[in-house]
Queue: 4 jobs
Job 1
Amino acid sequence: MSGPVVRFAPSPTGRIHIGNARTALFNYLVAARAGGRFVLRFDDTDLERSTAEFARGIEVDLSWLGIAPQLTVRQSDRVALYEAAAERLKQMGLLYPAYETQAELDRRRKLKQARGLPPVYDRAALALTDADRAKLEAEGRRPHWRFKLDHRLVEWDDGVRGHCHIDCASLSDPVLVREDGSFLYTLPSVVDDIDLGITDVIRGEDHVTNTAVQIQIVDALAGAGQAPRFAHHNLLVDASGAGLSKRSGALSIASLRDGGVEALAVAAIAVLTGSSDEVHAVGSLVELAQMFDLAHVSRNAAKFDPADLRTLTQRTLLKLDFESVRERLAAHDIVGAHAEAFWLAVRGNIETFLDVCDWWRIVDGEIAPVIEDAAFCKAALDLLPPDPWDEKTWSAWTSAVKGATGRKGRELFHPLRLALTGRETGPELARLLPLIGRTRAQARLGS
Ligand code: GLU
């Protein structure tokens, strides 16, 4: 049996933010956990607002998060499929032309509301005769096309929300095709889900109402009972309860990355917020996939505080083993025999990954040592043990310095740290000292 096939379907009308990443990651983790496939589908039928740059940017964002789609498709390449589906629906009598202008629809909606009736489309277009239509077209009107909903209760078992039902008699027949022949989101999405064999549609709860309509369209095009499983997750909101919009640039994946937030910190917050699992740092997406369960996602709003991304970044760095950062270190010329020991020494003392550059300079380059007490530093210099050095050298050396000078505690260690690193605080000197090495230590203590 093959695993689930999921899709993440952004419209490339902007870059993705952490709320979109939540949807992408939910899909990815469901697929990754069960050996399934992740499809990236660009919903780019809105040709005016979609751009290839945004699409490329979203691919970069997903890749940074650790998501590599098995397949990428663009709806703009697939219009012939949607046209064929629309044609079939017309033949089945399920897609009908309607000629109302927006102004007419607005006026009718207001009248209904004034009379206390639900503002549902009255299906007036269904009563038009061939002659009526010919007359309207002769006046220059072009039809838009509505799907004729079956006024029944549509039910599904939602992966997050449990049993759901929507009475389609309370919905307007949705417009699937605009006057100019272009498609709204609803039909292309269903056609692609069927064509690409999507087994699980995991998306935000803002799509719940679409689901009833889409299940009816799947039933019509692929046969009753062929609809994928659906799961609608709660949406991330900021501390004030406000939703995230594509325009809230600060929480875009690109700006979080540029601000030094770790991808796995974004993933942990995006996935675990608003669930029964506590938000905590993870060392890999595999670890996150092992614990992730859609059934743990809550139905309440998923409130998060962007400030937590900073602390979670530090905790994440501490969890990253050398293999997972080897290439990133190499990109900053942090390579060689000491690279691993260096990473293990500093990972608990950095706020963002880029801080490694400063620490690498401290162990491998030039610094300005801070000499508080030249005589003491000279005494310590004279007691430096011979090579080779390892992690025991620090304790052997400082014991000797303590014996010779009578100093202990901060009085003993602090001047040595300042001289050797130029910093007030930092990683354990037992780990740094062998990386700094005897030659540099001598020079710094004697400067
Ligand atoms: N393009 C739609 C959106 O971004 C996709 C919704 C869906 O997953 O079906 O909201």
Note: The longest strand covers residues 37-42.
Job 2
Amino acid sequence: MKKLIALAVTAAVAGGAFAQAFPSKPITIVVPFAAGGPTDTVARQLAEAMRKPLGDATIVVENAAGAGGTIGATKVARAAPDGHTLLVWHIGMAATAGLYRKLQYKPLEDFEYLGMINDVPMTLLGSPKLPANTYRDFENYIRANGGKLNLAHAGLGSASHLCGLMWQSAVKLDKSMTTIAYRGTAPAMNDLIGGQVDVMCDQTTNTTSQIEAGRVKAFAVTTAKRLDDHKLLKDYPSLQEMGLKNFNLTIWHGLYAPKGTPPEVTKKINDALQVALKDPEFIKKQSALGAVVVRDNRVTPAGHKAFVADQITKLKTVIDAAGQYAD
Ligand code: ASP
């Protein structure tokens, strides 16, 4: 009995000492998409902003792409729960719960929810080779040629896939476009610019500079209203404005750790996240890309989890209505 108590005391002390030591080695943020894309951009900017509040920690971003983000998420769900492996993921955390009937992890049970990062609009884009220049012309062109055109996305369950699905179902195309899956929208964007694919919907964190440089054609934003505060994106109509009633899609990103990460450690990470979300440099960089840094109670672990749980329910309705699944 004595021995047992002694063991318990040692374990408790070790737990406390461990938390104090955190981080004791480089922290890896897993991004479940290719490097250079929108999720990657959010993760890298966040890593920079969280480095100092975590005591000048080394934070590396690792791209573990594939299967709409679920490969990277599985990797983090199975990683050692010590705070040194984290996940930055977007709305896919909720969408894949409806799209994949067999996931390798349980979204609400296998992660510690650390807090939301931002909300990001999407833009509906076409290759520079498309003849249309306005949303109206674009919609008419797709109606007439949909069956011959390709829609790029970042895998089943990705934001770009979800957006493409929702848009095609909202405009009630007779013939849907052929979808082409990439490991992220960074490589998909290269093919859109080159005209190998025709259409893509993607976060503004990846599209703003390409639109500004005239490398792709932008037709609309997916938020309920147009983005009046953004110097470039304010010129594009919202899909609601163009007659797609109730169309409203905003992509959010959150930060996660494997289930079982000690509370002292998750608190340190959430504290650092809160500092990062108030960092003027981070806010400025995000807002230049059309993203809005979260300020409401979704920055708390409980608020974050409640929001994702609600999104899982809402997105499942959308996915079930479209009747398309990933497996
Ligand atoms: N924007 C992508 C998506 O459609 C993912 C990425 O490459 O970050 O989900």
Note: Residues 1-18 have pLDDT under 50 and may be disordered.
Job 3
Amino acid sequence: MKQFQVKNITSGVSFTVNEGESVLTAALRQGVMLPYSCKNGTCGSCKGKLKSGEVHYPFHPPIALSREEIAEGGALLCQAEPMEDLVIRAREIEAVRDIQVRKMPARVIEKTLMTADVMRIRIKLPEAQRLQFLAGQYLEILVPDGKRRAFSIASAPQSEDIIELHIRHVDGGGFTGWVFDELKERDILRLEAPLGTFFVRNDEPQRPMIMMGGGTGFAPLKSMIEDLLAHNDNRPLHLFWGAKNLSELYMHETVLQWAEQNDHIQYTAALSEPRSADEDSGFTGLVHEAVLQQYPELSDFDIYMSGPPAMIDAGRAAFLENGAVKQRIFFDSFEFGLDVPIRVLARPH
Ligand code: FES
């Protein structure tokens, strides 16, 4: 099999990419932790620079790269396959390097409908097994036909062997239809975790944080906030949570309580289509507009965003225009539409 050498000049690390393998897949396989989130070319987390060598994109076009970025040597490393040896410039993420990614079974122990289209499920790992992860990371549910479905972990690492997921129903069936209609308590799922490089940065000096979530994009932010609270981390934190109306903010009361009980936490609900009963419950408009209304100057903040790509893109562009530091914007972008069918792997009697 043909192999290519890739050298990252940011760290001096070199690794080998097999023919037909993406740069990101090869890097992760060899313990080189490049940043990533969606792994399907839409979020832009894995952007790097090509200093020499050529790549191609055989599966998906590099959606998250603009023409200008390509012209300036940008590459989307989750999709890019080398055509020759490469020299790249890419950030590496130390914090997740030593956390082992594992496959494991987990049993569904609770299924709760939070709104008409959001289900909370809690799953339990086998006896004596713990999942080590950083708050904000995600897991994948493995499907027998080889497909996978990614979900952010909504519980904090302190919750030990119980993992919480928030699953939004996607029209058209597929995996989420199966979760809503067929998945039962006591069913067994097979997981791979932890994945992704979305987590709270603790570099000094620590900066106040703005967290912005859209819909079930709240899940990893919930994990992060619970983890910060468990560590008595009192950095100022303002959570903005956006949805069409208040009933879609499925843990609104919990977040109000966090803000009430902790002076360093503020909360703003942003409602794009509020109902009359929602009056006075928050900002009316898009969630990134709510952030800008309160923080017209963003250069002092670390910004964490989680939600659909359109929300992330709008937020990122607007925040950069308002002084946000590019390297201090962290995001987890997920596409609700990427849905695959699944079957029950095992159902105990
Ligand atoms: Fe590569 Fe999302 S675009 S990880």
Note: The chain has a mean pLDDT of 90.
Job 4
Amino acid sequence: MQTLSQEIRQLAREKNAVILAHYYTEGAVQDVADFVGDSLALAQKAAQTDADVIVMCGVHFMGETCKILCPDKLVLIPDATATCSLAESCPAEEFAAFVKAHPGHKVLSYVNTSAATKAVTDVVVTSGNARRIVESFPADQPLIFGPDRNLGAYLNSVTGRQMLLWDGCCHVHQRFSLAALQELKAAHPEAKVLVHPECPAALVQLADEVGSTAALLKYALASDSEEFLVVTESGILHEMQQKAPGKRFIPVPSTEGPGCNTCNYMRQITLPKLRDCLLQGAPAIEVDAAVAAKALLPIQRMLELSK
Ligand code: 13P
Ligand code: SF4
């Protein structure tokens, strides 16, 4: 009798499919994947794969990015309704109007956007490369950054820029509790604080390390510290604990209490849905050809600038 995970691995072999998973998916999904990474690494992996099928265990915009990079491949997502509150906080027509109202600006969009929003963007960024890409523009070049106001404000603070910011946010990162972090810091004075830049500035200011999920993981593995307070979606603790079993990773709760620091969209991706999507070859991600052609350029620029 095969386990669900064994069945998924067998189906992936039969279909020549590569399973990519984000660190925020549940542990069992990460364990069955061929590759687990942050948004940047997932896009890089998709661009390089020679598999016939890509299964994106993440949210919809991640599947769209894969499809735009690999239009001839079948790109599957176990649940096509797994969206992202941050991407949804930036409707493409409204963002296009904002861009039009500010001529002379170059447009940087976080990867957490729809393909249609990327289509009105000059360069896509992730939290893993955003600072480097912002700094690649001449200092006197006016910039627009969307949609995450917290990441945008953080980038303005570390680069000294005054990018115009779209007023969007992620519902998970916006609601981490500052009071809970302060209490945990007092109770664990030796612990290092790891904060994702999608969090509000008051939390970022208490960080020992600010970065993408991959950057936070790398810092924790390289650090001499034994304890870490983790201020990002708690799915990342799975990989942290696996890679550093001797260290203690403490998830910081949200203002709504413990257990609310998970992304409900990412958690829609489950093993049964992953098995079914491999079996059925659906749901598949499709992107309108004209939109995809426009969105490809800023994604390619990002990948070029990340080498
Ligand atoms: P990274 O994995 O790039 O840090 O992104 C976090 C995120 O919110 C993805 O949706
Ligand atoms: Fe989107 Fe936030 Fe979920 Fe990341 S954690 S996928 S930004 S809703």
Note: The first strand starts at residue 17 and ends at 22.
